[in-house]
Amino acid sequence: MTTKSYAVIGAGPSGLAVMRALQKAGILATGYEASHDVGGLWDITNPRSTMYSSAHLISSRTTTEFTEFPMDSDVDYPGHRVLKRYFDDYADTFRLRERFRFGTHVERLERDGDGWILRASTGADRIVERHDGVILANGTLAEPQVPSFAGEFTGEIMHTSAYKDPAQLAGKRVLIIGAGNSGCDIAVDAVHHATSVDMSVRRGYYFVPRYLFGRPSDTLNQGRPLPARIKQAIDSRVLRAFTGDPVRFGFPKPDYRIYETHPIVNTLVLNHLGQGDLRVRADIGRFDGDTVHFADGSSGEYDLILLATGYRLDYPFVDREHLNWQGASPRVFLNVFPPSFNGLYLMGMIEASGIGWQGRYEQAELIATYLAAAEQDPARAERFRARVGERVWPDLTGGYRYLALARMAHYVNKDAYRRAVRTEREGLLAPVKDPVA
Ligand SMILES: Cc1cc2nc3c(=O)[nH]c(=O)nc-3n(C[C@H](O)[C@H](O)[C@H](O)COP(=O)(O)OP(=O)(O)OC[C@H]3O[C@@H](n4cnc5c(N)ncnc54)[C@H](O)[C@@H]3O)c2cc1C
Question: Where, by residue number, does the polypeptide cross the bilayer (predicted)?
Fold first, then answer.
């Protein structure tokens, strides 16, 4: 058991994963969760959850679940209620709930010598505690990215983070701005409830069916990953054969290759476009009352604009310098360790197609391995820090040229990332050679 004190902020999949990895390494930590229970955004009753009633996994069950804890379901793409139960069972099985204080919102982290003062509030009480290290697992999909537009819209504007139920769309002329995974899910909901549905897009997208050759598409081609260019060539050919060319339905032709941004795992949108239930519109030009003028000179009138414009990273309780922010994201080793090794660790700050919760668990194992080494065999931890400081950091792109967008700043290729995490963990576990022996 450790003598040092650690904190974990957040009891979502990442917070639970790190608590479990710490438990296995014999490290006790205190968890702080603002909401009333575990599950993070998969608990639709969590006030910070960005789930909506129709949401299901977009990565399939077997590629997403924790390896040591298979889901008690034979559904390929379970819905959020099943996933909430999964995290309940995970927390109960490994007795993780008792490690967390619920209803406890962390408001501030301040440097205190080698450690951190954590200030939190339960509403009734204020908490001030000192920890040697703090693991930040407060999620990456909670803080809306809201762009500004020319002109003024007099109807209702809502970000997808506030969308919960199709009743919010009933009887309205809806314009969805952006066609990411949430935007497309909500477009499909809207088709059945709104008076009309348009989607305004800036760029083209690749639409991946949930099933290919009768199997969940992300379970194909597992094992040894193909080089980026070969995979891009094969998969875009397969997609052309299965889903056709989205340009036929009004989408612009993508000016990038597949997997250079997150693919859209939704082909229902294409069906509805084919049925005329939904229309693709050009980029926004300007708003004028209830009219939206598009960049191609066309216009439309709407009651509700839904901003499917994504999320931005946010660690509001700690000064940016401590996380080495550069541009839209912290620049930290393997998306976890600030190069100053100041006792803060980022957990779950990865976006990747198919990384799943197991990928996040492996990240947690690396943190636990480092913290255990720091206490039990400081020379191994010292060697790890020195390597991080001295060498060029591993390439986590897997050879894909990700689009230079703010939301891609912390994007990684799952295979490259998991390989790098495995290598670093093995390096941390290797004994330090005695220079005299
Ligand atoms: C609609 C939708 C579909 C998705 N589908 C998939 C999918 O198919 N596959 C996949 O792998 N991922 C998917 N995701 C991504 C999802 O983010 C991850 O699955 C996972 O929830 C990330 O877990 P997390 O613990 O990092 O963050 P979260 O689940 O966001 O949990 C963060 C927790 O931190 C707490 N918290 C935040 N701030 C504080 C604070 N200051 N003090 C105390 N507590 C705090 C929050 O209350 C929350 O409980 C999807 C996301 C959405 C929105």
Answer: none
Taking the centre of ligand 1 as the mean of its atom positions, its distance from the CA of residue 247, in whole angstroms, is 33
Q: Report pTM.
A: 0.96
Quick check: 65 and 357 in contact, CB under 8 A? yes
Nearest alpha carbon, ligand 1 atom 3: 57
56, 71: one domain: yes
Whether residue 164 sits in one domain with residue 96: no
Model pLDDT for residues 319-347, shown as the tens digit of each residue: 999 999 999 999 999 999 999 999 999 99
Domain holding 413: CATH number? 3.50.50.60
From the CA atom positions of the chain, what is the Rg in Å?
23
Instruction: Give the number of the atom of ligand 1 that is nearest the alpha carbon of residue 52.
Output: 1
Cα separation values, 149 from 153, 293, 408, Å: 9, 11, 22
Answer yes or no: is the C-beta of 16 below 6 A from any ligand 1 atom: no
Q: 43-55, pLDDT tens digit by residue? A: 999 999 999 999 9
- On whether both 192 and 117 belong to a single domain, the answer is no
Question: How many angstroms separate the first and last alpha carbons of the chain?
Answer: 30
Q: Is any atom of ligand 1 closer than 6 Å to the C-beta of 105? A: yes
Task: Mark whether 323 and 419 lie in a shared domain.
Answer: yes
Domain boundary among 257, 279, 307: 307
Q: Considering its fold, how many domains does the chain have in total?
A: 2
Alpha helices in 202-276 (DSSP H): 228-243, 268-275
What per-residue string of b and e applies to 354-373 under the rule 16 or more CB within 10 Å gives b?
bbbbbbbbbbbbbbbbbbbb
